[in-house]
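Notes to self, Cubilin-like isoform X1:
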Amino acid sequence: MAGRRSRLSVALAPPTAVAVAVVLFSALMITMLPPQAHARRNERARGHCNKTVEIYEDVTSPELVRGNRYRPLRCYYRFRVTKPQQKDDWVIVVRFKSFKIGTVINATDCDNGYLKIMDGNAQTEVSNRRTLGMFCGEIEQTRSFISETSFVKIIFDVKNFTEETYFSFDSRVEQQKEVFGRYGPNPVLYPFRRGEIVPGTYCERIFTDCKLQSCFVQSPGYPSVYPRNLHCKYYLNTRLPFIKLYIENEEFNIDGQRCENPMMCPMRPVGSDCPFDFIRIYDGKNEQAPLIGTFCGMGRFPHSIIGSGQDVMVEFISSPAGPFLNTGFHFNVGNWPGHVESAGSRNGTCDWVFSSDTVEQGQESIFLSLAHWYKPGTSCSYLIRGRPGEIVRMYFPSFRVRPIEAPIRPYDGDCGETLIIYDSDRPDDSRIMKMFCDTFSRPLEKHDFISTGSSMFVKFESRTGSYDGSSLYYWAQYDFFNNTHYGRPVEDTVCDELFESYVRPEGRFGSPLNTLIYKTDEDVRCRYSFKAPRYQYRRILVTINATHFKHNEDACLDCLNDNVDKIIVRDPFRNGTDVCICDSWVNSRRLPATVVSNGPSMELSLHVDRRHATQNYFKSNNPIFEGTYKFIHSPICGPTVMAAAAEGSIVYPKYEPYVYGGYGEDVHCMWEVRVRPERDIWISLERMDFSLEDCSLEVLEVEVSGRHVFTVCATAPEEARSLIIKSKELREGSLIVHFKSQAPGHSTFQLTWTELVELPRNSDGSVMTSKLSSPGECQFVCPGQAACIHEDLVCNGIQNCPGSNASTMHDEAPEICYARTSVHLNYVALGLGAAGGAVVAVVVIILVCRNCKKRPDQDNTF
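result:
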């Protein structure tokens, strides 16, 4: 232009005669040109404006001439695809090599001029003809616009056309599927990769059932400059939660620069401060869903975004006016494999309640950390609640701690995110089991957190929020265990229990219902202690009804000493007679097995070998053993053991029930009567008064070596109320007497017994009397019996010899006792007479001595 002005100044120099002549001649020649020459000149002028542009044709802004200088100028350029039969398969690429038109004012208008690009018309599937925006400003590098349709129209409008307004471009066409940056690889396999257009719109698209690489979400015109005055909506959907926008590290340029000069227009980094162009992402199907974030800027997007469900809506807005610079966005859509259907109820976004009612017995359920976006200040709770008597176990099969990579609100302090486990049903700082923090905690995998009660509370808190899930990634599994006890748990033990008579006199018991105790590297020892106060004379009757011992490497040959699964019953009042039950014992004997203590206490121990404890019994539905217990022999029965003696008796009741509060308790008395070696024993039931006639309700039984030898009910005849038991039957040196009644305190009886010494017989059948020489042991032969008794038992008021026939002589027969009583009386009389005579003699001697002392005194007086 400077050269043009210099030439013009020369032409305007002071005219000379020659110059004037030349000018006049030129004007005359022009007027003499034919009309066809004028038409060709006008056609060349119109070639820069209002034309249909051939593909590959270079186009520049109109030439600046005197006629358009400083004047408004408006031009349009249409692009024509040369293959109309395939025009819908083509896109037009317009490459601007230079561009300087007007100035952007507040992103809403262009001062002095603009350029509009119409993409599509009434015949194309999409078109932006109703919402054309304006490009203005300047570019320093080549920029392109790639159409969405096969029709493009460029409108150039300037209010004051000067040499400071210009542009130039060329164009070409490409098949749509060959625009790799837009359609990606293998576009034929994904015909709806860019979504389905909403009819009547330019850039609203619907994406359904997205998978990775099957859905490309792009700004219009991508990968080129996006148009102005856009309001686009993208409805994204996946089949499963959590929908993920794979935008991390993707090139992102929405309103990143207002001009190309970085000194005048600093680059806007990717962020949420977006006054002009931006995208908004909603966690749902429309604008009423929660807003995840608003983004604009230039650079690589720092993180992906994960929605909480299956749907996300992306809204893209560009201002009515702006520079021809920004290239928009592109990202994939899929779903993040962090979704698991949890067996619980949810309140809000992430407050869960898990109940054992929704978890099958012996099974586990899971919950995961937040794998989707969440706001700053988010607090999530997980209440794991079992039934009464249950405990909760939770562990992390997978746990990762990472820095907070996609915070919504930056935080520089410690513990921007925390996970706290409470041994409670609510947050209680005094019941914290473990706390994890994103800045210093180490992950803890496969460690069991076990509650002491029926509930556990887990709480996650985030000060920062996140676009793509928690920095504390955890996969938590939980289950429930029956922690009810048959007895009272013993403190500081794993599985010991105490059974006391005053708490529950009888009931069931068995191996621990909480099979979690078998998940250990140590041998399991569970002790069941049965105790009653000594003054109550109690016994404990324990019955093992069933056992379920499983595989063990060692055979059970010596039950007490072998390292096998077993049950040991120990009676402290019966030294050296522990009962041991293992699998071989069960195989060789039949259950149930009954053990009765000799005193008011007993201990049963369960031993489980650690080598197979977890494999055999953890989460097993079958208990290792099942049994019952009963505190028998209440105080009404009296002492439990009768020491060996020549005679003895059991008097029932020992006390009246009101003395110890025994009314209402069924009676089961069990006495052990010990017998000296080589002694027979004669038992006899005296003063029997049973209140119930049914033997199933009230009965007295005598047991020898586990065999019932004597049974008496209320209806028993007189002759059935006594029995002689031979010494050879008393191999254990004792007999057991049982009395069972469902009418406590209403029956009475006295059971007596006498030890007998059996006398051998001669060949003629007569009784040998050689044993009668034993001093004090066998002095009296029972009439009609081949047995003798101790001399002291004769005529003691209790019949000690068997037989009750009045015609039979026995130890209490009057004939015998009268003679023995008379002899005893004569000896007494003689003793008393002698003692009386001695006393009289002593008195006489004393009187004589006193008289002798008085006589000398009388002689001296005279």
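- Residues 1-47, 856-862 have pLDDT under 50 and may be disordered.
- The longest helix spans residues 814-861.
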